[in-house]
Design goal:
Number of strands: 2
Helix content: 40-55%
CATH superfamily of the largest domain: Cytochrome c-like domain
Structural class: mainly alpha
CATH architecture of the largest domain: Orthogonal Bundle
Strand order of the largest sheet: 1-2
Radius of gyration: 24 Å
Distance between the termini: 59 Å
Strand content: under 5%
Number of domains: 2
Largest sheet: 2 strands, antiparallel
Bound molecules: heme C
Order of helices and strands: HHEEHHH
CATH class of the largest domain: Mainly Alpha
Low-confidence stretches: none
Number of helices: 5
Shape: elongated
Length: 143
């Protein structure tokens, strides 16, 4: 058997490799398209959630917090805060009782002066965020 790497061999590797990866790409695209509808929770996307999202943006919560991993690392992740604190009421009580200063080594969150309606919208938005199917991320409740 010859040791030389012929043009025909190079061509076969090129076509074979291309075909393999095109098929892999198509099958993964097909899989994504069939999985997507199962992860869709847009039915829960109410006007209240949208209002909460707007308040989230206007008040730059993401300047300190992460939401599903996106944002700043100054304060806790909030994608799962609804599960962590357990209810909308607990979230609202937390936000409206800030700041808690004077606890050594603990960072504090400012007071935003939200109305009851605004607090309801924000906690509704955070509840919505906790219901997004993230395939188990973050891996622990503190995350
Ligand atoms: C200046 C930084 C900063 C901003 C801006 C900020 N937070 Fe916070 N937030 C914190 C810190 C620090 C904590 C943790 C405080 C503690 O545990 O005592 C916190 C905690 C929280 C918690 C409780 C988290 C938990 O796991 O117990 C919630 C809910 C929350 N913030 C919501 C918000 C929302 C909603 C906004 C926007 C309206 C916001 N935060 C803006 C700094 C901030």
């Amino acid at each position: 058997m010859s040791q030389t790497f012929t043009k025909a061999m190079a061509r076969n590797i090129f076509y074979g490799g291309s075909l393999f990866f095109i098929l892999l790409f198509l099958s993964l695209s097909f899989d994504t398209q069939s999985e997507l509808p199962k992860h869709d929770n847009s039915a829960n996307l109410t006007a209240k959630v949208a209002q909460g999202k707007k308040l989230w943006e206007e008040n730059d919560c993401i300047g300190c917090h992460t939401l599903l991993g996106e944002g700043a690392y100054f304060a806790p992740e909030l994608g799962n805060v609804y599960k962590r604190l357990g209810s909308k009421e607990a979230i609202e009580a937390f936000i409206s009782s800030r700041p808690r200063e004077g606890i050594p080594g603990r960072r504090s969150m400012p007071q935003f002066g939200f109305t009851a309606e605004e607090l309801d919208a924000i906690s509704e938005f955070l509840k919505y965020a906790s219901e997004i199917d993230t395939a188990g991320w973050p891996p622990n409740i503190q995350g």
